[in-house]
Amino acid sequence: MRTRILTQGVTPSLHVYYKNTRIKQYHKEQRALRTETTINNTYDFAIGKRLHNLPKLREIGFRANRRLLEVERLSYDCILAEDTFQRINGPVEQAGQRASGFRFADPRTHALWHAMILFRRLPTGFRRADLRRHLADLCGRDPQSLGPGALTYQLRRLRLHGMIQRLPNTQRYRVTKPGFRAALFFTRAYNRLLRPGLAAALPGHRAAPTALARCFANLDTQIAASVQQLAFAG
What we know:
- The chain is an alpha+beta fold.
- The protein folds into 2 domains: 2-89, no CATH class; 103-189, Winged helix-like DNA-binding domain superfamily/Winged helix DNA-binding domain (Arc Repressor Mutant, subunit A).
- It is built from 6 helices and 8 strands; from the N terminus they run E-E-E-E-H-E-E-H-H-H-E-E-H-H.
- It has helices at 54-89, 107-119, 128-139, 148-160, 177-201, 211-233; strands at 2-6, 13-18, 21-28, 32-39, 92-94, 97-99, 164-166, 173-175.
- Helix 2 crosses helix 3 (128-139), helix 2 (107-119) packs across helix 5 and helix 5 packs across helix 6.
């Protein structure tokens, strides 16, 4: 197996080889992306050369094309997801208004994400008073300690980032679909992946033996053994 990427001129092309089979991807007439698979020896796939085997060969070719396109799509989606992650975590400016980003794992941001999940279920949206009450409960604070300026700041952040929408001619807000999904993802990733994972990975933080903790312990043992072996070799 081997892969070549040709970048002669300004129109790149991709060539992937498997035995006597080749996938070629290029821009047809420098416009449309074309992906084609050529099978030059059917025995590479344990299929005979008679005409009745043509449907099997077509299915192999289409499957190879789809797998390549799927890999490329997933790779491209990762780039888009990274851009989205950076936009959420960084400041934003719209129509002359600026708002800070939502830093991942920041306690105040985490409380705000939890409130967004609760508000998504309200059919008529939520008000400033609802945000004050829930934020105070999630942060362990007195609701009166959250002044109007602090709430306006949080609402503006959410609105400029596209996490909420203000309902026309009202003082109520609705959580958008991107806002709900971002809140759900960030809270679940922090609560179910980051915190338990670090507890298992860091020494002295393991409350109970887990598969991940055993893997890290084995990794430490292997690294120590490798260092000792290299020291003897030196």
